[in-house]
Amino acid sequence: MANFGGHAIPGSFFFLYGVWLTVKHILHHYWRMHQPKHRQGMAPFLKKMHYFEGGLQIFAASVGILVEQFVPDGPHAHLISGREWVKLMNWQHSTMYLFFGIAGVTLVASTASKLVPVGVDRLILSMALFVEGFLFYYHVSMRPHLDAHIHTLLLVAVFGGAASTMLEVFKRHNIILELLGAGFFILQGTWFYQIGFVLYPLSGPQWELEQHDNIMFVTMCFCWHLAVAVLLVTSTSFAVWFMLRRLSSNGRDIEIGMRNTSSASNSQKFLLEESEEE
Amino acid sequence: MANFGGHAIPGSFFFLYGVWLTVKHILHHYWRMHQPKHRQGMAPFLKKMHYFEGGLQIFAASVGILVEQFVPDGPHAHLISGREWVKLMNWQHSTMYLFFGIAGVTLVASTASKLVPVGVDRLILSMALFVEGFLFYYHVSMRPHLDAHIHTLLLVAVFGGAASTMLEVFKRHNIILELLGAGFFILQGTWFYQIGFVLYPLSGPQWELEQHDNIMFVTMCFCWHLAVAVLLVTSTSFAVWFMLRRLSSNGRDIEIGMRNTSSASNSQKFLLEESEEE
Amino acid sequence: MANFGGHAIPGSFFFLYGVWLTVKHILHHYWRMHQPKHRQGMAPFLKKMHYFEGGLQIFAASVGILVEQFVPDGPHAHLISGREWVKLMNWQHSTMYLFFGIAGVTLVASTASKLVPVGVDRLILSMALFVEGFLFYYHVSMRPHLDAHIHTLLLVAVFGGAASTMLEVFKRHNIILELLGAGFFILQGTWFYQIGFVLYPLSGPQWELEQHDNIMFVTMCFCWHLAVAVLLVTSTSFAVWFMLRRLSSNGRDIEIGMRNTSSASNSQKFLLEESEEE
Amino acid sequence: MANFGGHAIPGSFFFLYGVWLTVKHILHHYWRMHQPKHRQGMAPFLKKMHYFEGGLQIFAASVGILVEQFVPDGPHAHLISGREWVKLMNWQHSTMYLFFGIAGVTLVASTASKLVPVGVDRLILSMALFVEGFLFYYHVSMRPHLDAHIHTLLLVAVFGGAASTMLEVFKRHNIILELLGAGFFILQGTWFYQIGFVLYPLSGPQWELEQHDNIMFVTMCFCWHLAVAVLLVTSTSFAVWFMLRRLSSNGRDIEIGMRNTSSASNSQKFLLEESEEE
Questions:
Q1: Burial of B62 by CB count in 10 Å (0-12 exposed, 13-18 middle, 19+ buried)?
Q2: ipTM greater than 0.90
Q3: Cα(D123)–Cα(D99) distance, rounded to whole angstroms?
Q4: Residue D247: CA atoms inside 13 Å, Cβ hemisphere, count?
Q5: Where are the alpha helices (DSSP H) in A200-211?
Q6: Which of D6, D19, D9 is nearest to D229 (CA)?
Q7: Which of A187, A254, B110, C252 is most buried by its number of CB atoms within 10 A?
């Protein structure tokens, strides 16, 4: 989908997914801090969030695959026509969506059944990111310089996310790692938008694809997106923490599945203890 | 062995080895969950499986080396003839088999004797995969584009397996890591078949080795193989678990060396506990 | 800032920061050894050092950004002029400073509030180093051979520091890792000076930028800087330890926030115990 | 030193050092298994071995530097002559020796004083290997194909050893890691000999440096060296274990600093326990 919309749609999804992950992980972190040490297990609200997240991933991936296949100029589920491959670009995008769909199935399964080893959902999500980066990697060769460069920078966000999510398989419940993974999704999301703006400007003239200064600017711009991602993760985390604190001081803990006994004052105490122990 | 059979034979071996590893690791995982905490040690059935696996590796590697050396157009154990190297391709394949043979010897030795440090078998298996990838890496340069590309993708499976198996040296009994390693073997196996189909088609015309669309398709096809490998590991694991559950509910635990006291109901309970602890 | 001063100023900052980190980590290490096991927490003097360090980082980064923007031939906060980018080099340097500024803010925040997860300051510092290396990486292509090479060697120090600092997120209070990170800063600092001397010699003739022998010498010279960095970290550590030992044997522990009961003799004892436990 | 001897001398050193490390680590491993859990600390014989090893490293590095500097056609401690660099190859070799000398000093210091953090000796040894590989890496470009290739393969052994030794900083007393590091030294040693034989054959004609078959053979030959290194580490380990077992059954434990109470029968028992725990 070589137009602005074709970059804005996945960009929005990745961006919102990053924000969602930030909210989820901060809620979970806060909940863990309120739990007595011996009561491990999954928070009730987390279970619902996982079902929602997994379900949405399955739904979005299915829609994505169907759209890629059955848009008017799509392959309509034909792979070969005569001796030629049909619309391989659409097939590649379908493949990427497929893996995010599998990640959704895994998340639902691992939430529903204790048989699925803990961490498999992270492994498959990491695999989905790897597949995305892998296909993009061979995708971008033989393009004009700026086009190739701006997609290569995307790979930094994609493979960074894949590596960070893979680490979560082995280091469970590390809030820094969880927020890092979320940040990579946000970065990927905003960068998709940037790619759209550069390659298919909504207004104004086209960018000169071989000019060195454009390359230099785009490289620097990626770092600005990184700074924005850090800022967004931080402010989202703070907003969630602030709302939880207000809610819990009003005794409305039940809504998000927390225990009644926790209050603002001892929640603060737990926060202190947690930080020191880690 | 530049023909279809020369790719199908190693492909079948790697595929079956991956399935075997999946079954073995799930059996072991299930058995660990039934053991009381203080009784660590090796499951009796695992010992037999290790002997069988190691023995087969030694046998298959020996046969492989002999075949590569003594096929009619092989080197017949001659390395130099006059001032020329003799059939280096066959020598390279023999070298690969040699390392899988050493891995077999190590597995038998580490099962038989407590003197061999735990984990050495994983290290040597990782080394065998590394050597395979290492030789392939220098093997594929200077081939036509598609030929080189399809072998490069094989390296992803080979080096992925080497890295994952190496990690098992340090992270023992991590079922995710064990299944990941098994999945890489399955992926390698099916990809060997794919290489055979592409380079030596059984029917139909030859593939155009320099056409860009073929490269794009093959890259995407590798991701499909990955999805199939994930599916196969999952379904094999489920099948093994399902059979074990039926067996144990019939009180026939002894056959696979489990303790009599375990029943379907508390096996389920152990499964739950295990998952939460990890 | 393509002159000697433009390399000497950042060089001095990185060098002094490396020495500062060495002193801080050794003080902290010494303090940890004197603490009874159950009293974990942050040393009072460390808190003050963190505020100072973070404040200085914020201040220096702000000054750096302002200087880069408002020097006479700077961009004066203009990014685009007509259809051209304005002074992208200055903008890139400003971006680098920005991230070190963010690292300073994080350090202050994580010292002031227990809400910030432990280790986030290390993550952001690692990110600042990554951004520095990332921008340099695309910066140095298309330069003369020696110029590109000498900047590539800088990347070894920068990315080495980024990796080592990233590891500190997961391995807390490992004195070897902490000193390794400090050493990379010292190495980066002295190497900036070396770049200045080679590309903008204060006296004598210009270096021949394409001569192979110069490349060879510069490569070797980098190793000498590494040896010097090792020596400096070692001697600084020893000096700090020696001064602390003299102070504590005079009973003036309070000055650096230590407990009165520690004396030279049992401090030595603690040192022994610590080393064996690690 | 571009002749056979110039490769045989470092080759012999690395080979013998690898064997020495194997013996040392197996002795230490055996000793650890005999120690009661609560008595941690350093084995008396290990202390002596460390002093010997460190002393020899310092001595050999000093001799190496002096020889490189003061051979008749050496630089005689002159770095610059007029406007030309003097004998940079000799200076590079001196730099390599310098780092192994520093590693020796660190080993002695960390054995003698408890102030030196445990593991620093491994870090510096890893750094010495890194410097060796780093200098070789820039050394080998612009050589004939076979010459460059055979040195590139050396880098696999050098950087493999650097990585494995670096891991030992964080994973102490892991016998597999320790033997892996020793194996990389043995591999490096035998491969230095191989380089000597290929580039400066003692008899027979010169090797054709651009012939593809020679590249293929050399790649495969490296794997054979790897197999030999595995075999040597294994047989050395077994020989040491066998001799220790005979010694301890004769009650002559004191000679190697073991405790009198250990006998062949319970040493075996400890071996079993250790393996299971790991």
A1: middle
A2: no
A3: 12
A4: 17
A5: none
A6: D19
A7: A187
Q: Which residues 32-61 in chain C show a CB within 8 A of chain D? A: none
User: Which H helix or E strand runs over C17?
Assistant: helix C4-34
How would DSSP label each residue in C116-180?
SPTTHHHHHHHHHHHHHHHHHHHHSTTS-HHHHHHHHHHHHHHHHHHHHHHHHHHSTT-HHHHHH
CB D235 within 8 A of CB B107: no
* The pair of three-digit structure tokens given for residue D245, joined into one six-digit string: 């077992």
Q: Where are the beta strands (DSSP E) in A154-193?
A: none
How far is the C-alpha of A191 from the C-alpha of A152, rounded, in Å? 11
Residue of B nearest to A111 (CA): B275
Under 8 Å between Cβ of C2 and C239: no
Please report where in the chains the tokens 């670009």 appear, as a residue.
A89
**Tens digit of pLDDT for each residue in C108-151?**
999 998 889 989 999 999 999 999 999 999 877 678 888 999 99
Q: Is C173 on the interface with D (CB under 8 A)?
A: no
Q: Among residues A160, A161, A181, A183, which one has the least CA distance to residue A172?
A: A181
For residue C129, with 0-12 CB atoms within 10 Å meaning exposed, 13-18 middle and 19 or more buried, which class applies? buried
How far is A168 from A159, CA to CA, in rounded Å? 14
Gap between the Cα atoms of C182 and A27, Å rounded: 35
Domain ranges of chain B: 4-277
Which residue has tokens 């002096």? D66
What confidence tens digit (pLDDT) does each residue in C167-196 have? 999 998 899 999 999 999 999 999 999 999
DSSP A207: P
Q: Which of D205, D241, D276 sits opposite B115 (nearest CB)?
A: D241
CB contact under 8 A, A118 and B224: no
Chains C and B are touching, with contact defined as 3 or more CB–CB pairs separated by less than 8 Å = no
Subunit contact D205:B123, Cβ cutoff 8 A: no
Identify the sign of the CA torsion C28, C31, C37, C38.
negative
Token pair listed for D220: 């495969």
Backbone conformation region of residue C142, classed left if phi is above 0, alpha if psi is from -120 to 50, else beta: left
The H-or-E segment that residue B80 falls in is strand B80-81
C120-139 and A212-249 helices cross at what angle (nearest 10)? Answer: 170
